[in-house]
Amino acid sequence: MLELLTSKIYGAPAYMVVPFIALLVLYVVLVIRFILHMRGLNVSFTGKKKKIALLLGPRHAGKTRFFHLIRDGEHVDTVSSMKELTCRFIVHSKYNLDKFNAELTVVDYPGHERLRSRVVDFYSMTGTIVFFVDASDTPSFRKAAEFLYDIFANKKVNDQTPPIMVVCNKSDISGAASPQMVRDALEKELTQLKTTRSSLETEGDDDEQDLSQVPVGRDGAPFQFDVDAPCEISFVKCSVKDADIHDVVRFIQQH
């Protein structure tokens, strides 16, 4: 013991150096744990939440298959989920044609109508919205329009204006609607929804007005994406089945 106390390390007494080394090791361990914790919370070192790519749309439109394809590089059979799927990853090399090596945070949110009210919790941290539509299923356009209406009416979306890409998936199926046809159909549905939703709001109690909602579109005018959408919006043809997804991947990477 006496030798330990009297020995020297780099000219300094050992009893002074050893505790310093122990504290240094403890500090490094704590810093590493803090970094991993912040990454898990998706928080940058400026204290701000990093923006996410939010995958939305009605059920069976192809969101989850797209998620697994760009993350794992392979097609996966999926079922409707009741919980969102969140992951940080670099797009798989098979579909990362632009060699974009930064990690993305992607949230695949379930399309079930009963869960739609909870999606608003993600809007404050959303950098871009990728909205999937089954272009081969014309009757589903009504549900897609209802979902889009709720997005456009949300105050957080109007404040942050994340760019939105409407992905017209399943374009490989014969008879699938083109992006322009999907756009026209959604504008027609949104025009009808403006009328019905406005009537319901008028009949409601003014004292119970929802301050988290804003009016959609112009009074007395048909809905037009170029004029009435609160965000920059684009439409793209896509086939997750055939891995024709590059435009969607690039959109997420660039935003």
UniProtKB/TrEMBL annotation:
<keyword id="KW-0812">Transmembrane</keyword>
<dbReference type="GO" id="GO:0005789">
    <property type="term" value="C:endoplasmic reticulum membrane"/>
</dbReference>
<feature type="region of interest" description="Disordered">
    <location>
        <begin position="195"/>
        <end position="215"/>
    </location>
</feature>
<dbReference type="GO" id="GO:0034067">
    <property type="term" value="P:protein localization to Golgi apparatus"/>
</dbReference>
<dbReference type="GO" id="GO:0043001">
    <property type="term" value="P:Golgi to plasma membrane protein transport"/>
</dbReference>
<dbReference type="GO" id="GO:0006886">
    <property type="term" value="P:intracellular protein transport"/>
</dbReference>
<dbReference type="GO" id="GO:0003924">
    <property type="term" value="F:GTPase activity"/>
</dbReference>
<dbReference type="GO" id="GO:0005525">
    <property type="term" value="F:GTP binding"/>
</dbReference>
<dbReference type="GO" id="GO:0005794">
    <property type="term" value="C:Golgi apparatus"/>
</dbReference>
<dbReference type="Pfam" id="PF09439">
    <property type="entry name" value="SRPRB"/>
</dbReference>
<dbReference type="InterPro" id="IPR024156">
    <property type="entry name" value="Small_GTPase_ARF"/>
</dbReference>
<dbReference type="InterPro" id="IPR027417">
    <property type="entry name" value="P-loop_NTPase"/>
</dbReference>
<protein>
    <recommendedName>
        <fullName>Signal recognition particle receptor subunit beta</fullName>
    </recommendedName>
</protein>
<keyword id="KW-0342">GTP-binding</keyword>
<keyword id="KW-0472">Membrane</keyword>
<keyword id="KW-0256">Endoplasmic reticulum</keyword>
<dbReference type="InterPro" id="IPR019009">
    <property type="entry name" value="SRP_receptor_beta_su"/>
</dbReference>
<keyword id="KW-1133">Transmembrane helix</keyword>
<keyword id="KW-0547">Nucleotide-binding</keyword>
<keyword id="KW-0675">Receptor</keyword>
<feature type="transmembrane region" description="Helical">
    <location>
        <begin position="12"/>
        <end position="36"/>
    </location>
</feature>
<comment type="similarity">
    <text>Belongs to the SRP receptor beta subunit family.</text>
</comment>
